[in-house]
Specification:
This protein is mainly α and 203 residues long. The protein is built from 9 helices and no strands. The chain has 2 domains: 61 residues, Homeodomain-like (Arc Repressor Mutant, subunit A), CATH 1.10.10.60; 116 residues, Orthogonal Bundle (Tetracycline Repressor, domain 2).
Length: 203
């Protein structure tokens, strides 16, 4: 559990408990990608993970609790940011990573399902927000470094720049508004970089 008290199952266990958690969360991700949040069934997840139903019900209790822990797990396992030494290259790397994730058959379907669930389930929404807070904070470091190098104005809101990179890519995912490819990634990164240099994101 985190210090503030969170979702069932949100722990950082070790040994066999960690292996069970890994298996259950991988199974939950597979189930979400296949059936969406509405089709997420704890008994089915237990079967896929080859663990007892009692274990799953006791530790996670609800689909929302399971998804919350899955998002925490995904944040922990996410690829660290790239540090290529220039704002343009770093933002392009971030955008391309987002595109690779969202176009992956499993990961793209998983994120679509979780985002949809977050619109109608408060606990899932909170867990999704925590996930993106972790990822934005990770990548904000490349923008902060650009400010220190003099590439961007002092006072630039690093988190807002990173959000600006991802926003058009998620819009394409959720609306089907055009190809979600490297060209789209590069355009999103370039637009965010141009706006940041112009001082759009200065607090």
């Amino acid at each position: 559990m985190d210090a503030e008290g969170g979702e069932p199952g949100m722990v950082r266990p070790g040994g066999r408990t960690a292996r069970v958690r890994d298996a259950v969360l991988r199974a939950a991700g597979d189930a979400l990608a296949e059936h969406g949040f509405g089709g997420l069934d704890l008994a089915d997840v237990a079967r896929r993970a080859e663990v007892g139903k009692t274990t799953v019900y006791r530790r996670w209790s609800t689909p929302a609790g399971l998804v919350a822990d899955l998002l925490a797990y995904m944040a922990d396992q996410s690829v660290p940011r790239t540090d290529l030494g220039s704002l343009d290259q770093d933002l392009a790397a971030n955008a391309r990573l987002v595109v690779r994730t969202l176009t992956d058959p499993r990961q793209g379907a998983l994120f679509t399902s979780v985002i949809a669930a977050a619109t109608c389930d408060t606990r899932t929404a909170k867990a999704l927000h925590r996930f993106y807070e972790v990822r934005v904070k990770e990548w904000a470091g490349c923008v902060e470094a650009a400010v220190e190098r003099g590439e961007l104005p002092a006072g630039t809101d690093a988190s807002e720049v990173i959000r600006a990179v991802s926003a058009p890519l998620y819009y394409r995912l959720l609306t089907g508004g055009g190809a979600l490819d490297e060209a789209a990634a590069d355009r999103a990164a370039e637009a965010a970089a141009v706006a940041a240099r112009a001082g759009v994101y200065v607090s």
